[in-house]
Amino acid sequence: MQTDIPITIGEETIPELTRYCREKNLDRFLLVSDENTHAVLGARVEAALKAQDWDVRTVVLGGEEVIADEETIVQVLLAAGREKWTYVAVGSGTITDITRFCSHRTRNDFISLPTAPSVDGYTSIGAPLVVRRVKMTASAQPPVAVFADLPTLCDAPREMIAAGFGDMLGKFTSLADWRLGALLWDEPYDASIARRYRGTLLKCVDEAAEIKRASPAGITALIAALVESGLFMLEFGQTRPASGSEHHMSHYWEMKLLQENRPALLHGAKVGLGTILAAGRYDVVRRLEREEIARRLTNVRLPDREAEMARIRQVYGPLTDEVIATQRPFLEMTAADFEALKRRIIDKWDEVLEIAATVPPAQEIIRLLEQVGGPTTPQQLGLSAEETQAALDHAHYLRDRFTVAKLGHLMGLW
Ligand SMILES: [Zn+2]
User: Which secondary structure element, helix H or strand E, spans residue 392, and what is its range?
Assistant: First the structure.
């Protein structure tokens, strides 16, 4: 997978973009934006490309809220026709995902111009889409280049900046969950990526005060961290390093809101809340000494398969078959497998505690999120106490990954 994508972050990115296109002999562009992002950046990009006498077709997606669904995708594909273009995405996560998908399916490349440091998906391969009101992720492609225009990013809505910071804070728990999965469930792991990823995260957290001010230094640190995060996923070839129990909770809420026709929430805002909750689980783990865990696991039995399936059916309704397929490795555990897992957990408990120590306490995650003005309670996101508890209890069924939520569920820790 290509990870040497040229990334430009600066005050004057449009001339850099035209220079890049000239060097690569690109002269036909399909620019995709929405009304907001066209006003803040897209129109200037369009003018700059046209000023080079290049062929530019522009799609400004309309409506209150652009969703990466069938309707929007067809709109872009109709505008594109069967011609050859370099797609240019001027927007935040959703516009980029629509462009990522449409360019990939028409065998074209795309260039990303992020308009908000709100998410780490700019450089990713997957395009989250909503098809028949169900969220799915289509495999597509990363951009061939990223031009991040600092003045535009600094002027992005504050809640989008806070969401980007929330998506980054989620790496505390996703990186810990990843290592936990390797230690206890033999999931593929790359220590070099994990080390560099954590370095990126800590550098970003150090800039929290500057990010709050939306200063050029703070926003540079945030967008650089988000872009690097996407590149680490590309390098590993999966989203595993970037997405743990905090993201599973975010996916749970997202599905629920979609099903109930409620307004969508920013991805990073949900991940921020998920991170507080997942960090709370690590708080519990940290308080358990080895003797205590050995004592508590003595009488723990393999969760009853029928009861697990009934629970999944009750929570996930029409998605039951899909969720059960995902959970097969856990549902098919034998009593002997389960005893071996328990033994392993007890034997490796010191390392589990080491992993838990890499996650800041939930209170510290709250403090960091508050510092940048991000939501820290379910109420602020319009989620009920029941929906919060349901995500804590059931979101781990959504993926086949071993996380702190899975550990606690299987071992009856909460
Ligand atoms: Zn994310």
Answer: helix 385-394
Structural domains of the chain sorted by starting position, each given as residue range(s) with its CATH number in brackets = 7-156 (3.40.50.1970), 159-411 (1.20.1090.10)
Are the CB atoms for 99 and 85 separated by under 8 Å? no
Tell me the C-alpha to C-alpha distance, in Å, between residue 266 and each of 76, 167, 269, 351. 23, 10, 5, 34
What is the distance between the alpha carbons of residues 120 and 229, in angstroms, rounded to a whole number?
6
Distance, C-alpha 174 to centroid of its chain = 10
- For the cut 80, the answer to whether the pLDDT of residue 282 exceeds it is yes
Tokens of 287: 């308080």
For residue range 219-265, what is the model confidence (pLDDT) as tens digits? 999 999 999 999 999 999 999 999 999 999 999 999 999 999 999 99
| Residue ranges in 135-265 assigned as alpha helix (H) | 150-154, 158-185, 191-206, 208-213, 216-236, 245-259
Cα–ligand 1 centroid distance for 161 (angstroms): 13
CA–CA separation, 327 vs 321, rounded Å?
A: 10
At 74, which helix (H) or strand (E)?
Answer: helix 70-80
Ligand 1 center–CA 249 separation, angstroms: 11
CA of 84 to the centre of ligand 1 (A): 31
- Cα–ligand 1 centroid distance for 311 (angstroms): 27
Q: How many degrees, rounded to 5, is the angle at CA 139 between CA 137 and CA 140?
A: 120
Q: Determine how many CB atoms are found less than 10 A away from the CB of residue 217.
A: 12
* 2 band by pLDDT with thresholds 50, 70 and 90: low
